[in-house]
Amino acid sequence: xxxxxxxxxxxxxxxxxxxxxxxxxxxxxxxxxxxxxxxxxxxxxxxxxxxxxxxxxxxxxxxxxxxxxxxxxxxxxxxxxxxxxxxxxxxxxxxxxxxxxxxxxxxxxxxxxxxxxxxxxxxxxxxxxxxxxxxxxxxxxxxxxxxxxxxxxxxxxxxxxxxxxxxxxxxxxxxxxxxxxxxxxxxxxxxxxxxxxxxxxxxxxxxxxxxxxxxxxxxxxxxxxxxxxxxxxxxxxxxxxxxxxxxxxxxxxxxxxxxxxxxxxxxxxxxxxxxxxxxxxxxxxxxxxxxxxxxxxxxxxxxxxxxxxxxxxxxxxxxxxxxxxxxxxxxxxxxxxxxxxxxxxxxxxxxxxxxxxxxxxxxxxxxxxxxxxxxxxxxxxxxxxxxxxxxxxxxxxxxxxxxxxxxxxxxxxxxxxxxxxxxxxxxxxxxxxxxxxxxxxxxxxxxxxxxxxxxxxxxxxxxxxxxxxxxxxxx
Length: 475
Fold this sequence. Notes:
Helix content: 25-40%
Number of domains: 2
CATH superfamily of the largest domain: Vaccinia Virus protein VP39
CATH topology of the largest domain: Rossmann fold
Oligomer: single chain
Number of strands: 19
Structural class: alpha/beta
Strand content: 15-25%
Shape: elongated
Largest sheet: 9 strands, mixed
Distance between the termini: 62 Å
Radius of gyration: 26 Å
Strand order of the largest sheet: 3-2-1-4-5-7-6-8-9
């Protein structure tokens, strides 16, 4: 029990700091082969070094008689935590570096606050390899212990959403030409969390290669990560970026594919989905409103009972059910809108992101939010103008079919990776903007029942080409 509590405490500590220490195995297997022939060409720097495991193993490839001199001229390590600096020094000693020399090139510093300018005066160029702290701004704002990090998101860093983004922008501002970063895979696949950052960074850097892990490699986080190999462009350009990506999956399978990131879609992976929904956005598209809020109830009190689950009240793996009394108009509005969006994969194939019927899954009429809204909870969808129940079932089938089509063809890259799990597939998050855009691509086929029937059949038969053809003809 004591060991379990210690692990929980350690996990919370690392989560609050955004710290996830890197194994030497990651360096030896995935990074060293890329740099082994250029060791003497650069100063190898890790500004967020932890125990030093992303740089110190380089010394294994330096002859013993040259190691001390190599360390003096080619290795600098930093960390904000004093105990991590001490561990890095001890590790350097293990590679044969005297303690007094190790202490000269390994020291404590807050590199998110400012870049160590003295490195820029060295005659040898810098190559930065790091596993920086990453902590989402939303988490920082909600957790008092993490709010110390808010100071980093001011002035020139305003608008960025994660600590790792600030780390990379510091490198850009100081003209570091070569980067190898271990970062969350939402760098590639995230939407609002990464759009501004990708646009700002990839105007100046090209991605040479990306290793995308869909398997757990850190003990204290369930976050999926990638290793990105970046090189600074000779001049800033916003152009299509093509690079080789390799996915490493749970069963040690490797999937290699070419990625094409387009600036008009914020350099986001899986932009084929975005192109689809933008092309088919209906001129008379449906308006989508999310959530049945407490203020909606308070403004529409009455004598008509309505059964709901409260998505703010989750106990024993289920949502609490209650009966609310509202006026006639709100009761009818709730009952006429039967769908909700599941934004997070559950891990089972029957629980993938998409649209579902509230009554089928919860045996109530609505999904109520009594406190703060959360994007990961089930969310009631209200559609205007109102469409029939039959149309809503067709909309549900359409949305889920399109999602599954692109999941299969893009290996789910248009969705944000949620977190590592032992599920048979990588769990994903569906953004509310993506949901709205997909709903708004739903064609209006009411005037032609024959075409509507063919559309239903094409979805049922999973015939994307036919669905596409019908949509083009009705567009």
